[in-house]
Amino acid sequence: MADARPFHWEFTPEAPPPEAFRIEGGRPLRGTVQVSGAKNAALKLLAAAVLTGERCRFENVPEIEDVRVLTEVLADLGVVVDHPEHGVYEIAAGDVDWLFIPLEAAAKMRASFILFGPLLARFGRVIISNPGGDRIGRRPVNLHVDAMRALGAEVEYRNGYYYAQAPGRLRGGEVIFPQVTVMGTENAMLAATLADGHTIIRPAAQEPEVDDLILFLREMGADVQRTAPDTIEVHGKRRLRGGRHSVIPDRIETGTFLVAAAITGGKLTLENAACEHVEALLEIFTRAGIPVACGRTSLEIDATGLRPGDLRATDIASAPYPGLATDVMPPVCVLLTQANGTSRVHETIFEDRIEWLAELRKLGARIDIEDARHASIHGATRLHGGEASISDLRAGASLILAALAADGASLIHGAHHVHRGYENIDRKFSRLGAGIVRTADRS
Ligand code: UD1
To answer: For residue 1, which of 96, 93, 92, 91 has the smallest C-alpha distance?
Structure first.
């Protein structure tokens, strides 16, 4: 029988030894690269597996640190996690030993909060850490909590933990979000699949990863439908079955490689990529004057004919899907350092995603950071090698991009941030001709 008491929980204490990327820039990238499965789909699919006691099999799962952390959290709950081959995970949550997600897990990866809905729906209770610890407001999850309450859960907050229970069963209900939230939508939808009755979620996030999760939930026997672009409806079932699913391609990694080709004057074929998921990004490429050809499951970009000054500046703003993804804004900022004129950047979703541009300046970019959401990029600039530090996943990939395009050598500190979400990024780039190695960071 699962126990919901909190206890002192030792999360794997090891901190990985610091690593840096050493990059020799200025080489055009050429060749073919396989895009990995989408991080933001894989994490939710693995969480969905706890909705059933039957075995679930996932293919095309990216081999990244966030997946490792989530599977470790699942294993610590008592869920059986098998990893029979590269990119394949099998999950069997017949019963669990604990219904407790400790701060150590939540602080390592905010996305652990995606276990809230499915654990509560299946087992009727859960204790889960606020990802920001006892500091309400940092990394807010209020919309997730409100959604569970709308489905009949009783949720109390004490000392950094949410104590949630659903006496009997969750009840279907109306989940109305004050703003679009991706994981909030997913958590509500996961919970509603086992709730008693009909749930309507509005506005529901429209990201392709949400629809990938819907596909798998239907495979599990759930009655879930997107009944309008911003509306998801669920008729709860008493139980769900196991299933198998292949994760969709990562559209942010796709964007990262497209920018890499464009700024190094290279030519790349991206395989296992979904053109229809990167339309907003392709529109920016078109506006900047870079041709990209779409195949059925591949993309081709040829920037070998582009001369310095050919690219045109363009203004960009992030938006919920189908708008330009906030996660692809940092790579696009690097692209805009190579465009003629001033490009205005507006980050509409998060308040902490502009500061990293100060690091990009260390490689020669000319950027005015106006406030927490706005910046201007003046181009075209010749980037030069330098030393910069990574503060988060997407900024990290973008500093690598800048160093790949720069003249000379760069040292980019904080490699571990990038491993959270990119599979073997250094190996993928070096196979395309980049001068990049991962080294111990002793500075
Ligand atoms: C997901 C993605 C992340 C992406 C983001 C926006 C995963 C694991 N992560 O994050 O890569 O950048 O979508 O596309 O899928 N908010 C609240 N309260 C909440 C929840 C969110 O105020 O309870 C706010 C956030 O601070 C943010 C906005 O809502 O300003 C949108 O965030 P949300 O869509 O929820 O992002 P995530 O799902 O966490």
So the answer is: 96
